[in-house]
């Protein structure tokens, strides 16, 4: 959009339909983890609701906010004071945010989050090792208490194939919680890498393909456009 390009500006601020969802304007806010959930319990609170209300007005801010990543389970958490979306208390907490955004005519989506190996033993249930697709540490840092000091992530435990159904359920339950909390949509990340037809698979109860993290970035078609689509098409 060039400066003074009135027709493009007009369309930027015009409504758009996303499936059954009507979104009043097209500047959308990307997910921004800011912490500040109430502890203990990792519960979204009135301060979080105010922050979203300030940004979720479709004429002044975002037509749609993809909310900060929400932890699907205790095991899936890697940072201090990041809100979860798997307990009744957290659902009630998020409802304050979705209500605040909806009251202004805005829309809000939930980003479901399992950090995998990018975690530390201290936020893990029983102080156990974080689970990941591999036992190789991520060589990254995380903050695990209110000091916000970043510490090296812990050595993860490689997830067994027999544990995958429980991880799938760790996403299914929070997706139901997100609906209950009043979210308009759910955003998913890496599952789309290896399942180009993810919605089709969900709709028909079809198996999901695992991703190959070695091909996440760079390279050619392998691991980029080579994953099969069970729905057919290209
Ligand atoms: C403070 C902060 C928190 C972020 N949290 C998330 C997050 O929770 N989920 C996510 O997918 N991306 C997250 N991101 C990435 C942003 O969504 C976005 O992709 C990135 O900031 C690039 O966009 P920008 O150049 O407009 O800032 C975060 C970025 C920042 C700066």
Order of helices and strands: HEEEHEEHEEEEEHEHH
Number-wise, the strands total: 11
Indicate the overall shape.
globular
| Total number of helices | 6
Note the gap between the termini.
Answer: 32 Å
What is the quaternary state of this protein? single chain
Low-confidence stretches: none
Could you say what the CATH architecture is? Alpha-Beta Barrel
Q: What is the domain tally? A: 1
Portion in beta strands: 5-15%
- Ions and ligands: flavin mononucleotide
The fourth-level CATH homologous superfamily is Aldolase class I
Using the coordinates shown, work out and report the CATH topology: TIM Barrel
Helix content: 25-40%
Largest sheet: 5 strands, parallel
> Which class do the helix and strand fractions yield?
alpha/beta
List the helices and strands and how they pair.
Blueprint: H1 6-12, E1 16-18, E2 21-23, E3 28-29, H2 46-55, E4 64-66, E5 70-71, H3 88-102, E6 107-113, E7 131-132, E8 141-143, E9 150-152, E10 157-158, H4 164-180, E11 185-187, H5 191-194, H6 198-204
Parallel strand pairs: 3-4, 4-6, 5-6, 6-11, 7-10
Antiparallel strand pairs: 1-2, 8-9
Helix pairs in contact: 2-3
The structure holds flavin mononucleotide.
Flavin mononucleotide is lined by residues 30-33, 68-69, 111.
